[in-house]
Write a structure and sequence with these properties.
Helix content: under 10%
CATH topology of the largest domain: Immunoglobulin-like
CATH superfamily of the largest domain: Cupredoxins -  blue copper proteins
Shape: globular
Strand order of the largest sheet: 10-9-12-17-14-15
Number of helices: 4
Number of strands: 30
Radius of gyration: 21 Å
CATH class of the largest domain: Mainly Beta
Number of domains: 3
CATH architecture of the largest domain: Sandwich
Largest sheet: 6 strands, mixed
Distance between the termini: 28 Å
Structural class: mainly beta
Length: 448
């Protein structure tokens, strides 16, 4: 039923797409950016080549660097045989151009061209990606190569750094494997950073004394990743593009699907080092990149950490925050088992999309999403077109000042986030795992 309804939404959206978007676009002016969605042969290594779909014949796609509040037009050409859509993840955009068909964004028909015009806000490290259905085809939608960096430069930038480096983590060549619970979950043969396996891409060349600002994106369709840079530490300054209340220096980063971390690295340990996945089997599948100091030689060095370490709470503000009244919305996550070898259905409050409830929001009101995860899986939860404040994670004390647009809700725990309803229109709420989203883990909030 979900497949049929989403397909219907795609096809009906295409019919209205040209007219709706032409009213919002500057049809005669040259676009500021052009994106071509087209088949692409990715060479992750000489022995690992696979067909995917990408933006502008590269993985990741082009970096779109914009200034906050300045108007931009982006022209998108769909050179594939499937309807497509581009989601501008983390931006405050009207639902008709946000890039989700569930919100009413028209699909881009095969062979068609569309223009999006908007003033990007809020500032920070955002990204763009496809928001289509994959089902059992683990080369489509987020399983493929359609992801790119989007940086909205603030009007005033106080960060001190000498250069920026953008890194995208991704998993490829997925296949379904049955777990102990009987559920079918994707497993991957290849993992990359910026489309290359460790040892096959160009190294990141640095100089001693440089302050390098890393913008790290986890564009994986389903996997959480832990990242370390041997010989160095990370000074975390932003999560999901939003400045943290407390900047902390850490030895590793954890990123759930769709999360971003911005961190400054002091280049103070000359040599040749590996930045890679902390878990040995994932790094062995290729997730790593070499950092090479000027004039340094030798084999890249990796220092294996003992544990996986990460805690959202350390980046929240200290002390008691403002006690703003928020209306609670209770959301319970679980799954419905359909039998061994079958796909489970993911549910919010006992229903799978499109049969889920549609909570009504009132503009200007503050809401608290109380997310109770009854399942055995961690879920990266994303709210479109809004930024939320993380208030509780897994029984923690009340937090404040930690602003994000994706939060990982651990298995068998409750997480609470708050946001102000200040962007009217349909707003999609979903797990950012592609397979969970495809199996019903979505709902739409509506404004009164």
């Amino acid at each position: 039923m979900t497949l049929t309804r989403r397909r219907f939404a795609q096809l009906s959206g295409m019919a209205a797409g040209s007219l709706a978007l032409s009213r919002m676009a500057h049809a005669t002016a040259a676009p500021d950016f052009t994106i071509e969605i087209a088949p692409y042969l990715l060479e992750a290594s000489p022995k690992h080549r696979f067909q995917t779909v990408a933006y502008n014949q590269q993985v990741p796609g082009p970096l779109l660097r914009m200034k906050q509040g300045q108007e931009y037009t982006i022209e998108v050409h769909n050179r594939t045989t499937d309807p497509e859509v581009v989601h501008w993840h983390g931006l405050f955009l009207p639902p008709e151009i946000d890039g989700a068909m569930e919100e009413g964004t028209p699909m881009i028909a095969p062979g068609a061209t569309t223009r999006y015009t908007f003033k990007p806000d809020p500032p920070g490290f955002r990204w763009f990606h496809t928001h289509t259905f994959a089902g059992n085809d683990l080369r489509k939608a987020q399983f493929g190569g359609q992801h790119g960096f989007l940086l909205v430069e603030p009007r005033d930038n106080a960060a001190r750094y000498d250069r920026e480096v953008f890194l995208a983590l991704h998993d490829w060549e997925g296949h379904f494997a049955g777990g102990d619970d009987g559920f079918m979950s994707p497993m991957y043969d290849v993992s990359t950073i910026n489309g290359k396996m460790l040892g096959f891409g160009e190294p990141v060349r640095v100089k001693q004394g440089e302050r390098v600002l890393l913008h790290v994106l986890n564009s994986s369709p389903t996997e959480v990743h832990w990242i370390a840079l041997a010989g160095h530490s990370f000074q975390v300054i932003a999560l999901d593009g939003n400045p943290v209340s407390q900047s902390r220096t850490v030895t590793m980063l954890r990123l759930a699907p769709a999360e971003r971390v911005c961190a400054v690295v002091e280049m103070n340990a000359p040599g040749v080092w590996v930045l890679g996945e902390v878990r040995k089997h994932v790094q062995a599948a290729g997730m790593g990149i070499v950092f090479e100091y000027a004039d340094a030689t030798g084999k890249p060095v990796w220092n294996q950490p003992d544990d996986l370490v990460w805690d959202y709470k350390q980046f929240a503000a200290s002390g008691a925050g403002a006690q703003n009244e928020a209306t609670p919305i209770d959301l319970v996550f679980d799954s419905q088992f359909k039998g061994h070898g079958s796909e489970e259905r993911w549910r919010i409050n006992g229903r799978s999309y499109p049969e889920t409830e549609e909570p009504i929001l009132h503009a200007g009101q503050r809401y608290r999403l109380v997310m109770k995860n009854l399942s055995a899986d961690d879920h990266p939860i994303h709210l479109h077109r809004h930024t939320f404040e993380v208030r509780r994670i897994a029984g923690s004390a009340e937090l404040h000042g930690l602003m994000k647009d994706v939060v990982l809700v651990p298995a068998k725990t409750t997480a609470e986030v708050e946001f102000v309803a200040e962007h009217p229109g349909k707003t999609l709420f979903h797990c950012h795992q592609q397979d969970h989203m495809d199996r019903g883990f979505m709902m739409v909030f509506r404004y009164a």
